[in-house]
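Handoff note, outgoing to incoming analyst
You'll be picking up this chain. Sequence as last confirmed:
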Amino acid sequence: MIEIEQFTFNPFMENTYVLYDETKEAVIIDPGCYDPREHKELLDFVVEKTLKVKYILNTHGHIDHVLGNYFAKTHFGVDLLIGKEDLQTLKSVEVYAANYGFQGYQATEPDQLLDTTDIIKFGNSSLNILFVPGHAPGHIAFYPTDKSFIIGGDVLFQGSIGRTDLPGGDFDTLINSIHTEFFKFPDSTVVHPGHGEATTIGEEKVSNPFCALK
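Most recent structure output, in case you need it:
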């Protein structure tokens, strides 16, 4: 059974997730840890739980979700994976990072570009991939076979949605991604978003002011 640990990092209050199971193998999704204190917080958890990190995964390449890519990839000595359509989003971070005050940002190349046919395997667990553009052109999300949860990045939030005013964003595309991909999941499916608290598909279907089904 997959366990999920959430951390909130950096000034953007971004959610980083560590997923692991009974084998102690783990994946880290969207490492936003930037400063030494945040690095230590993530590392301390991994050490405390005696986890063996297998992959670093990105839902998309915006700065707040990738600030810790270099640290996590190099410290744990594992591959970095991101959706194949969002490579340019990731590469652009090193151009503008200093403008946001992150002069210490260190870029790192992904080792694998993911497609929806790929399956992420760790321990006795696996994650499937959704292609959900709109917030970022190559945004992906991760979910287990039993569809009990989605690690959703900046697609669907509790009572809100990801912003679409950044380069490559598009409101209509995002709403379509939510309706055709996220809302096909059971109402009980828990959405773990890139910012804020978790929600459920059922709750957002009826109450989200941006994308509820009328």
